[in-house]
């Protein structure tokens, strides 16, 4: 119910799960929006479709800008940044859920609402699993939705709360929503951060000069020279003001935490630190575990760039087989091509990757990739490698088979499209037609992620629903639409 | 003398020498322009500022498009590609020589001229060292120049030739020009490739179905599935037609070849093959040589991404010190930001690189980079590494000290700005304030580049003027402007 | 609270009152949006800043597009019109209230709301005089406003209505609003038109093939070849469906009608017919009345183009003084220049008008203009005429002195800025420094507008608040802000 | 051989001859480009497709900008005007010769050439009738053309001249060209104006403060407040410098002048003065002559807006039949729509004109138009008038039948498309199916244009080739292409 952007991008099948958002906020600095722009640039891997910034200045009030495209193209010119003044700002980058629907600027966060006690803006990473039910209820009571985003429910719930101040209204609203969410919000004078009771999505607190920062990941603290203070804890709300600093609240009933283990495998940047652990180091250890669990005699260990690199290094170190760049990535390939011709679209993976032919020829090659989703890219890579004359191709995958969709803020194909939902590991190897294919075990992954005893099956230390089908929060909207949860038999 | 493009980009100091062009052409295929677009995408590392395509269709004649920006953004939509029909096309990507002057679309190649016997288009990689003298002479005789490009001389020389056909006119014209040049040109029915007598810049021939391809590098043959046939030889002109295939001519007096050794060090893509050698493998061997020439006790070998990676792998393999990703590159950083704010501009290298803090802390780190030009980036990287808590920082550079500007198609700072022009290796170490700094020797580099005996000082096998100051062709325009050649004493 | 459009226009002081909107809708035709685009083009004089179309197709649902700029530039390409399919569509053009605030696309109508029984869109011409009070009440009850437009209240009032279908909800909503409004709205199957009880703004019904049309003016029926059926009556709601044709409702308590007399003077197009009278003929008769009320000996009668033309023709016919084009209008002057330089901005009226020097020199000139608002343009025109050598300048104005602001959908300066609010007719003549200045009387205007007895002062036949200060509906928001109504003494 | 502009406009058949250019230059003022922009805005009726400005500043050298679209949209922002500094500038607006070929920015004037003695820019109104022959000769001698414009020949002829300074080279060049041309040119220090020996196209000299102006028409002097000095005489070259003022040269052999009589009929603006006569007054007198030559009993005299207006006023005054606005022009219709849908394109004349139905109904109407070219618009207007219920329709045309194409800078259809080339006046009346149709006689036109004795058939006082077929300069390129000149028999 709104016009499409003028150019819409055609995403190439790069066959990955997609994080849907990155969030960032800062209070107590001059030109807060500039900091937010830098932070969002560092979080761009969490969402490349669009970005938005809302800011507040005591004299000039709230201002905002939302744009399709990269932060570096939209939020760097003096022209735009001068329209975003003030010491308090929040921002959001989002991933395209393209294909199904045209992207609309109205869906780009942060969302803003004018309440009787003043304005508030909110940016959200995650997914509200009862959003459809809430939306229906709110429309029946007279709310008018402006977007198709699940996050807009929060603003409408806040508008209807009877609480007198905005943080209280936000508590009210968030107690009604289910699912996974990290939130960065702002009023005229406060910066607010929240994580859901399970703490599925990350959120950290930083300090820069006299100001405070909230960010999805620590890598975005580094870019602005901010010091890492601590993580917002699962179920915690922090309300930060210039006057009082960080105040902590606990709006929810406590629960065992379930951080998303796929943040370690793929979503987060390798230079971020999560739960006290280096993401890079976790990934390298996955490679070490893989080399122990699934050794093979070969000449070269090559990463599928760039996400397979740390695990490939680990595999090489543990196995003693030389590490090499067998596949070269084109640095000038964006995530998308603009309206490509049919011929170019059919080039698929070639636009992005090329085999280092002189290196590969006649060699037995171990390819280390982070995950297999639909398997389409894996097939094309295998073909390129064989075309270049490799003697053998062995796939080693740095995560267990992805057999279940995520409903907590990650864009996954429908279950039927997941290769591992319909095939055993052996069938997948035949389907991909490679000399060997091995995934790391769930226990191996947990060990690499800092759990020396592996997975606690009674109460897993992480959310691993995409591998195990064990959903820590029932995805009620999806169940209402007919999604089949895992049965005891599975 | 022409309007500036609407948005001009601010290049960040990433302190590298810049190749100025990539060229590509194809004949005898359906929709030749689509192939050219793919080829230019694969050659984008040779020039990111702008690109152009000229094509010819027997019915629709010549058509062209020239645009600022990446190939993937300009030459992929059906909209534009449908305006570029026909079985014969050539293309060009160019690097910005920004800073001094605003970029103008008139300077974007290929250049086109309408001669009495029909039109011709020409794309050029290299630099004509007597262009200013030629330009002055041509203007005095009534030629009207439309660009500030040295390459336009070739078209005007062709227009004044008395020869009856276009390849003959091109021979006439090229015999008048001095310097380094690889040329891809086209008439209505022919695809033409030329390399200067020294063969300074690369150019290769490929075959795709019934058609023929000319390309700066082999990696652009791979993207369209073309087979590598051979290199155009130094001093050779090839005239390719559907009817007669490849005809070879020798317009110039033979000379010993002087291929640019910096193509091996940095310019070419690692998956290209030059002179029968894998660029990746040459770079890895440079790392091996460096480890032998300049060993040091340390905990980690880290590349400065992405160009230092192969040499870092080689150094690690030879030294036994573990290879690690100590510096993480932001994938969403383009080469430029559009009109950045002062604050963002000052962020410099941080927008592009971040230190993997958890890994680096307390470690003795060897950083492998491809070259040191002005040293500005090296300083910033060192500071980032030390801020992150490294115990020691050792720089190992995969090329000798860059002490002389290139006049053969590479954008280099003026001599005074080159760190190695004014400092000894030891002074540079002090200037950068690192624990050690070592460059590979010229002999070591030649060995890695396939010359087991090292450099033949009597008649070097490569052009290495940027390291040695020995220019194989006198840069006459520059000398006329007062440039001081190396004296016997130096 | 939203970004400004990329280019914002600088309106030149052309010193006119501005109609704020034109509305148009059609049902029961193929490609209804194309008809709406044509209708809006014919209504462009009622609003030049922006336009929007919402349409509905049984299969493709609701679609919309909103753009800044002219209809001819935004809603004519196949590209955009193909995204607006279906047999039912409404549209809106709006005038810029620029200056005070940046224009925002969110304020561009039609507005859309998704209700539990389906979507509805609404386009509004007029002004809701209690909008601020309603807005405050709605926000307190949890509504989230997305625009600064008074019209958005209607959608929120509808959302909160307990009625079961949309026309009933609209009745509910409109009974809560005060002021002047003509509304065109649509549901999935119905086209709805409403005029406020006083009928201040126009709205007519037309018939085209099997379909029905609603339009602000009859000139927009002509462009699509539609037949004029009748006016929507003051206080009437018409609900039009393919099945049942036009159904009439009467949601409001009956009141004597008060059509805006300024529609006759200036707002409506001369080829429209209002209340059974030709606008052109009314204006010509104003000239006739003026010639009787305020004769003067002179050589030429010249219109101030283009709005003064019919009255100048009438004045010439009644007085026998020759009609001539003494001032030539530049056809290529839009209503605005884009970001003009200071020098160009200072050119003011010269960019738009030029004196026909050869004609004017030495002549006694009667200038006929439609109105005097701030008097700034009148002064400049007088200076141009004198510079060109006119012997005498006599102004004749086709409306009474404009001494009061309009609160019913017309953009007027604050009262202090209106020349007639602070000066007598004689003071104005001195201020403008012309040989004579005369306005038509209120009675003369009413006679020209078809009331042979002139104005019925007990119950005026038109709304003439801008001349008389007698507001037929109290402008309650403005009074709350301190606006002083006319006292008995005035 | 160059990319098309991104949006190309579809001109509607408004069935007029089109002037192809307006030219303007100024020297000796601060920010000369701002004056040029204003002058071009006043000359926009002479060319609406594109405009260009070249300027020179002693420190910043030559700068230029060329854009598609209106002056008011392209040359008014501080942004662009600040890039055009200096006390000397020239500019050009051009009409689209669209249809045959896509418009290209390279064809937009002024053209610029860098000669050995410095740069020069040139803007041209008219047409060089031996341009194809010159072009062929120049290409054979080595010139490389950058545009398809006939005007580019002048620059290349100048480049090959052996004269030492630019005005002398221009004399050399212009002596080689045939046809009709008014030229405004500039060097670094001089402003140059030339008219061809016949003086077909206009060019006037003005004075503004200490500076000098050259302009196609006097209306563009008015807009900048410049004083009219005199016309450049046929066959005169004026060289204007700050130091020496206006110097006059006579490069050509004297000939009797042949000013284009159609400038009086249609091309020039009514507020311009040509040859000492007011264009408005000439047009009014044409109406008077028409009323004498072709009287008819009727109720109303209505102009076809806007160009028929002065003649309609004259006809009304002479005949005593009331003048009225029977056809209303939509002010928001540009000359083109951007890529209109088929449906909109078919609306043709309705988008631009509407009948004032209430006025026309039952009346006998005289329609006064300036010319009949193909007759397509006349037919549509007649249909609209009859649809609205007119009792009779009488066409009176303010020019003789247009039976021959113009080759002197006006865009005319091929001869076969001209209604008067194939039909007698009576056949045209039947074809248009109107009650009467009369054209003014050639003698009547000459009388109105200030020749009391009418046309001197032995040596006509004007160029009237479009009416008479008597071409004062043989159109040699066209004759070479097969155009048939008038035979003695015709």
TrEMBL record, chains A, B, C, D:
[4Fe-4S] cluster binds at residues 260, 406, 463, 466. Its EC number is 2.4.2.14. PROSITE patterns: GATASE_TYPE_2. SUPFAM superfamilies: N-terminal nucleophile aminohydrolases (Ntn hydrolases), PRTase-like. This is Amidophosphoribosyltransferase. In the C-terminal section; belongs to the purine/pyrimidine phosphoribosyltransferase family. Pfam families: GATase_7. The keyword Glycoprotein does not apply. Keywords: 4Fe-4S, Glutamine amidotransferase, Glycosyltransferase, Iron, Iron-sulfur, Magnesium, Metal-binding, Purine biosynthesis, Transferase. It catalyses: 5-phospho-beta-D-ribosylamine + L-glutamate + diphosphate = 5-phospho-alpha-D-ribose 1-diphosphate + L-glutamine + H2O. Mg(2+) binds at residues 307, 369-370. NCBIfam families: purF. GO terms for molecular function: 4 iron, 4 sulfur cluster binding; amidophosphoribosyltransferase activity; magnesium ion binding. Coiled coil: none annotated. Pathway: Purine metabolism; IMP biosynthesis via de novo pathway; N(1)-(5-phospho-D-ribosyl)glycinamide from 5-phospho-alpha-D-ribose 1-diphosphate: step 1/2. GO terms for biological process: 'de novo' IMP biosynthetic process; purine nucleobase biosynthetic process.
């Amino acid at each position: 119910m709104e016009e499409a952007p003028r150019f819409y991008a055609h995403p190439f099948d790069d066959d990955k799960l997609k994080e849907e958002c990155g969030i960032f906020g800062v209070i107590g600095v001059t030109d807060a929006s500039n900091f937010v722009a830098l932070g969002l640039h560092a979080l761009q891997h969490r969402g490349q479709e669009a970005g938005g910034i809302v800011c507040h200045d005591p004299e000039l009030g709230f201002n905002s800008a939302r744009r399709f495209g990269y932060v570096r193209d939209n939020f760097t010119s003096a022209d735009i940044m001068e329209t975003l003044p003030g010491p308090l700002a929040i921002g959001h980058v989002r991933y395209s859920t393209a294909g199904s629907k045209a992207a609309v600027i109205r869906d780009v966060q942060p969302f803003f609402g004018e309440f009787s006690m003043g304005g508030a803006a909110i940016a959200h990473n995650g997914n509200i699993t009862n959003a459809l039910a809430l939306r229906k209820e709110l429309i029946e009571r007279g709310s008018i939705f402006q977007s198709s985003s699940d996050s807009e429910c929060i603003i409408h719930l806040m508008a209807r709360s009877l609480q007198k101040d905005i943080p209280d209204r936000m508590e009210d609203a968030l107690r009604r929503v289910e699912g996974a969410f990290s939130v960065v919000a702002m009023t005229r004078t406060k910066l607010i951060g929240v994580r859901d009771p399970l703490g599925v999505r990350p959120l950290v607190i930083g300090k820069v000069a006299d100001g405070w920062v909230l960010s999805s990941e620590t890598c975005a603290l580094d870019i602005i020279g901010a010091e890492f203070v601590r993580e917002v804890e699962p179920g915690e709300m922090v309300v930060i003001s210039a006057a009082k600093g960080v105040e902590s609240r606990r709006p929810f009933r406590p629960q065992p935490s379930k951080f998303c283990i796929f943040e370690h495998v793929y979503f987060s940047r390798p230079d971020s630190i999560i739960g006290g652990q280096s993401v890079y180091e976790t990934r390298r250890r996955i490679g070490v575990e893989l080399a122990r669990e699934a050794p093979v005699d070969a000449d070269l260990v090559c990463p599928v760039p760039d996400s397979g690199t740390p695990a490939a290094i680990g595999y090489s170190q543990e196995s003693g087989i030389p590490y090499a760049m067998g596949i070269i990535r084109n640095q000038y390939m964006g995530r998308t091509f603009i309206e490509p011709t049919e011929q170019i679209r059919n080039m698929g993976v070639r636009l992005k990757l090329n085999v280092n032919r002189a290196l590969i020829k006649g060699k037995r090659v171990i390819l280390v990739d982070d995950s297999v989703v639909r398997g389409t890219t894996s097939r094309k890579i295998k073909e390129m490698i064989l075309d270049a004359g490799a003697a053998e191709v062995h796939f080693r995958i740095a995560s267990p088979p992805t057999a279940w969709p995520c409903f907590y803020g990650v864009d996954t194909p429908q279950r039927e499209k997941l290769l591992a939902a319909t095939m055993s590991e052996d069938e997948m190897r035949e389907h991909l037609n490679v000399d060997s294919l091995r995934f790391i075990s769930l226990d191996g992954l947990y060990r690499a992620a800092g759990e020396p005893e592996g997975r606690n099956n009674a109460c897993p230390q992480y959310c691993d629903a995409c591998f195990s089908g064990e959903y820590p929060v029932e995805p009620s909207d999806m169940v209402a639409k007919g999604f089949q949860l895992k049965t005891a038999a599975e």
